[in-house]
Structures are given as C-alpha cells and as structure tokens.
C-alpha cells in the first residue's frame, strides 16, 4: 500500500500529547510528511481531541501530573472510539513516577504500537532495570526481547537501534536504514513515533506493514539528509526537507529490510 | 510610517503568552525583527508583565487551566494600562474548553487585533462550526466574514489564507504576498500574530496601517526565504534570516496590496 | 584538562530544568557537545533525577509554581548528593514572583556557578533594579560586580556581555570570544549555562578553569558558525554543528582570554 500517498490525500489528524522538547520538531515533521497535527497536553481537552483524531500518540517526555492525566484520558477515549494509540515510553525506569504512569497506560489502554529505543524496550521486557536518559541507548537491539514485549502487550513493537526491529510478536522485520546522526539530535525517537502514528492511521488492518514502511522511510529520509548536512545542526532542517519530499518510489528503491527468523 | 525602523530603535517588549510548539520559533522571529520578548505562561506573572510591556499577544495553543487564567489576567492588565492586546484564537471550536476560554477573552478584553487563519475567523463569524487543527485552513478567505468579526468585536482582523484579508470593519485590504510553504510549517500563524503585535506596539493610532504593513512584510520575507530554501525544513532558518534583513524599502517595493471594496 | 574529551568519553547526564522556549535548542546543544540530557520540570521527578545526574542546571524561564517547586527540590537533592548545581537566574527583578523564587534558590542551595547576562548579574549585585526581558542586556559588564556576586554566594559567576567575565571571587578572567549574533537568537544564555554545567560535571576541583574553557569554547563555536551563516536563522543550525565539531585544539588556538587584575 502507498501509505504516504494516503497520508497526503487524507491529511489525518494526529493527536500528539507531546513533550516540550520535541513539540516543535515533531509537529513540523508530521506536517512535512503531509499529516495534520494537534498538540494538547491538558486533561480538559484530551478526551474530545482523542476521539476526533485518526491516531493518538502518547509521548511520556516532560511528564507532569497534569500530562499523566491527559495521557490516560486520551488513550481511553481513543480506545473507546476504535482509534489507534501509539506509545513512546520515554525513559521508562528512570523515575518511580514515570515508570508508574507508563505501566498504568500499559495496563489500561490497548496499544496499536509501542515505539522506543532498544534500552526502553529492554526495560519493558524485564531485560534491563532502567534507562538513564531519553537519548541513551544500548548497543544490541535484541529481537527476542522486542517479540516478548509485543506478545505481552498484544501490540506492534518498533525498537530502534543500530538495526531497528519491528515485530507484532509473530512476524519480525529488521530495518537497516537510518543514520547515526539521528542519535546526535534530540527527539528523533519522538518524531518517529508520531510518524508511525501517521502511517498506522491510514493503514486499516495493515498496521504491521505500515510500521515497517514508516521505519524504513524515516531512516531513508535521514540517510538522504546527511548527504546534504554537515553536523547535527544542519541535519534537522535537511531531515524535515527529506520527509517532505519522501515518496513511495524512494522508499521501495532504498529500503533495507530483512525478515527475521528465530 | 517606517514601523520596522521604530521597532529596531525602540526594541518594544512584546509579552507572548505562547504555546509550547511555537515558543522558540516565535521568540526567535520577534528578536530577528528587532523586538524584545518575554514568554511567561503563569498567572503569577501575567499582570505584572502585562502592564509593563508594549503589546500583549494572547496565543491559545497548548492551552491549560493555568494558561487560561494567565491569558485573562494579562489581557485585563494590558487593557487597564492602555497597552494593545492581540489575540490568536487557535483552533477555536475544536474543543468545548478552548472555545469557552476564547469567548471569555472576547467578551471581557478589548482587543487591538485578532489574527487567525480564515477557518478560525469563519468560526468567530458564525460561518463555520469548527476547525479541526491549528494547521487546517479553508480555501476561501471571505472578506465579508472578516469584516463582520471586526465590527462585532470592534477590532482589527487579520485573516490569513491564499489571499490575506486585513480589515478594521470599515477599511479592508487584500494582501497577496506570502508563500504556500508557510502552510507546511507549524506556528507560522503564531509568529505572524506576534509580528502584528510588534508593529502595532509602535504604531500609535495607525494600528490598521501597521497591521497591513506587518502582513505584507511577513509575506515578503517568506517569498524571499523560499528563493534560498528547498523544503519546509530549510525554510524556517531562511525565513528568520529574511525577517532580520527585512526593511522598509523592500516592503515598499515588493508589497502586493489591494484595497477591497464591497 | 581536556574537558571536551572527558564529556565525550563519559557522556555525563545533565539534568536541565529548562524553559519551554529553550528546551529543544539547549538539549540539542548539549547532545551536540557530547553530553546526555534529561529535561523534566515536575516536582514528582526532581529529587530522583537530581541525585542521579552529574550536574543540575536550574533555568528560571517560563517559570510556574510547579517549576519553582521542582527547581528547589532538584537543587537540594543535588546538594545532598554532592552534585554541582548551576543557576541561570533569567530576568531576575522582572516580576515579584520570579525574583522571590530566585532569592529562595540563592539562600537555600549551594551553587557551583551562576551564569547570566551582565544585567542579571548587576541585579544580583544590587547595581541594577531589574532587567526587562531575558534578551535584554546592558553595555558594560563590570568585573567588580561579578566578583561581588561570586563572593557573596561563594560561587563561580559567568557574566556574559560584549566581553564575558568569569570569576570565582578571587581569580577573574575576561573572555573576548563570541559573536554579536548570539544576541539575535533566543536561549543562547540558556544553552551556555547548560554547557557550563557539562564542563563542570567532568571538572572535579577545576570548576573555575572548566567555566573559563566552556565560555571560550562556546564563543569560538559562535565565531565559526557565523563564517557559514547569513543571519540569525541559519546561525542556529550552524552553531550546533560547530559545537559538535569543537575540540580542544580549536579552543586552545582560538581562545581570547585575559586575566583581570583589580
């Protein structure tokens, strides 16, 4: 399916409960891709926007009690309305409060996908105690752990690392697109989660395929951006440009995907 | 009047109650233009900063109960001190809470100007029920609706669209400057509202002329930025550069303004 | 000491309680430099992150009652754990609330360094009543006032201006690196404070030397960025690039430091 074409045609409204650090970058990234965005972090609007959007992205950065309440209300409203919910469990394990909120989301909201770095997925899979910062990552991205998390929460898992792992617990794909410069900027994981949300919002029952395509497309845009950038500063605007010009043909030609068997 | 020269000479303090998504971009845009900026979103400071600034910009993005209180306090303090207040009623109609706060502002605070996209102005003019997202817009920008809103609230209205409409309810100007790339980035309306605030802050009784000039200047900066940019990513820094280098001569040479008669 | 090499080797976690305007820029700046970053502004996490980080940066922008509480909790937890605390007293004097919170921090938390513009340092040194905006500055950067503040609070003071002053109350260094374009963007002081935090976090007992080196390195990166930038818009990504490529050799070759005797 040409997910990108569908995003640009339908301009699905992605509801981002988004942290303060990532909000500008992730909004610009989604608009560059062709989606519409609403960013609102208050419990006073969470249910109403949640049920009127095409996907709800729950981002745990710059958490507060107010945001925690909004995350739960938005997720539950989306569940009730049959709208896909995507979770970015930023820095799970780093603090008691954060970890508690993340597990409350996991136990009360049905997720379409969890998108996080390998370290955070390892925490969710009980293979690591905690992550130290949203930008930390571990070297090895173990597909077995991602599968375990996917099975446990009956969801798609996108675990990012040197090689990205996408799994629904049954099928698993490895993606070798991307560029290490993504680790030298903040919020690259936040925007990927939002992009996964946009692809899933137009995917119908092909949410797994959409997640694979989104991950590859995101990585390809990063590769192309680095052909024009110098360091992490110029990488950001170049990357947004490449998301804007990304299309299905480029993805099909440049994607580096591999089915994983274990 | 050379409003830009006055901004650069006086460096008026613009008090922005500004959403999380737009705060960096709109602050950088105002500084590039030559103004000073204070961003504060707490009721604990709203009255004090409000009465000590040269213009107060009320932006409704990433609203919360706390921000709603700050918006009302700042607006009222500015009214009392005779300082112009400019409203950006982001996504009016999208949620009950947001809409209620916006109409409370409209009914209790005297506004110098309302700056919003055509869809939001249509909601305020009872011609449309709601807007779906801050980045949505409608194709037609009806001057008659903008005039109706201007008359109802006795204020200047700047309604942005393919053609921008500036009206004080009596005089109406159409502005054909600008670039569609402004729709592919977030917060372009937020920054425009702040820029209108900066122009109005040095305009004395010529607030309508200042609003026309600001709208044209903003559009011209966008046109010039796209001569050097590629996509929406590089457009942002190029646009800030052009606001910094914008001057009266460039505006006078490149403005595309037309008086509207109806 | 090669502080930059140590930052890149150890990737110290800098805990930023950071304002909404500066959070993306300062996080990207710290990552570009080689540090890890955690941004959290809630009292629910402040003590836990505070005691587990390598430096705590208290930034007063976009203050709220919640942030004020987080600032105090994080600072006290860091003090207890022997972790250096760096304060950026943004716009001290501008409002009653802000000023009260800043003096509460100053009277209850032991600071490793205060980093602020000359105007803010003058307020702390009782030489100026208030600053009007976070971007305002005064022309003269008086080393005697910076020394007075350093002695009073037994801390290092970095006062930025046309010439930067770094002092621990006994030794004083003037730094002539930097570029005026830093005054045409928002949050350049916020990021400098974070960078000071990163240098201090790896400095052991050489915190004064680390502060001097950080200030020079920051200024040098700005000078190099302007060789490739046009205006303030392009300056931002170019500056982040230069922080990423900055190294000890460049600092040693290009630093313009002078010991101040008075």
How would you characterize the overall build of this protein?
- Three copies of one chain form a homotrimer.
- Chain A has 262 residues and is an alpha/beta fold.
- The first copy, chain A, is 50% helix and 15% strand.
- Chain A contains eleven helices and nine strands.
- Chain A has a nine-stranded mixed β-sheet with strand order 2-1-3-4-5-6-7-8-9, with helices on both faces.
- In chain A, β4, α5 and β5 form a beta-alpha-beta unit.
- The model of chain A has no long low-confidence stretch (mean pLDDT 96).
- Radius of gyration of CA atoms of chain A, rounded to a whole number: 16 Å
Shape verdict of chain A: globular
Enumerate the spans of chain A where pLDDT stays under 50 for 5 or more consecutive residues.
none
Oligomer: homotrimer
Strand order of the largest sheet of chain A: 2-1-3-4-5-6-7-8-9
Structural class by SSE content of chain A = alpha/beta
> What is the N-to-C order of secondary-structure elements of chain A (H for helix, E for strand)?
HEHEHEHEHEHHEEEHHHHE
Bin the helical content of chain A: 40-55%
Largest interface between protein chains, with number of residues from each side: A-B, 32 and 33 residues
The DSSP helix count of chain A reads 11
Number of strands of chain A: 9
């Amino acid at each position: 399916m040409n997910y990108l074409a569908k995003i640009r045609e339908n301009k699905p409204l992605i509801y981002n409960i988004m942290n303060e650090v990532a909000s500008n970058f992730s909004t610009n990234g989604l608009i560059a891709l062709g989606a519409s965005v609403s960013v609102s972090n208050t419990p006073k609007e969470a249910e109403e926007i949640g049920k009127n959007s095409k996907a709800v992205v729950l981002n745990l950065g710059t958490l507060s009690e107010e945001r925690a309440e909004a995350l739960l209300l938005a997720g539950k409203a989306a569940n009730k309305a049959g709208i896909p919910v995507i979770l970015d469990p930023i820095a799970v394990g780093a603090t008691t409060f954060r970890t508690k909120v993340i597990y409350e989301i996991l136990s009360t909201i049905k997720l379409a996908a969890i998108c996080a770095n390998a370290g955070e997925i390892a925490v969710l899979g009980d293979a690591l105690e905690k992550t130290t910062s949203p930008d930390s990552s571990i070297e090895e991205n173990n597909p077995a752990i991602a599968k375990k998390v996917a099975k446990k929460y009956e969801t798609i898992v996108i675990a990012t690392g040197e090689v990205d792992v996408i799994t629904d617990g049954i099928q698993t794909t490895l993606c070798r697109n991307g560029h290490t410069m993504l680790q030298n900027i903040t919020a690259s994981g936040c925007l990927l989660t939002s992009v996964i949300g946009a692809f899933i919002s137009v995917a119908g029952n092909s949410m797994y395929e959409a997640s694979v395509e989104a991950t590859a497309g995101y990585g390809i845009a990063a590769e192309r951006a680095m052909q024009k950038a110098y360091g992490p500063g110029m990488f950001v605007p170049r990357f947004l440009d490449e998301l804007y010009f990304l299309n299905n043909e480029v993805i099909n030609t440049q994607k580096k995907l591999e089915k994983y068997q274990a």
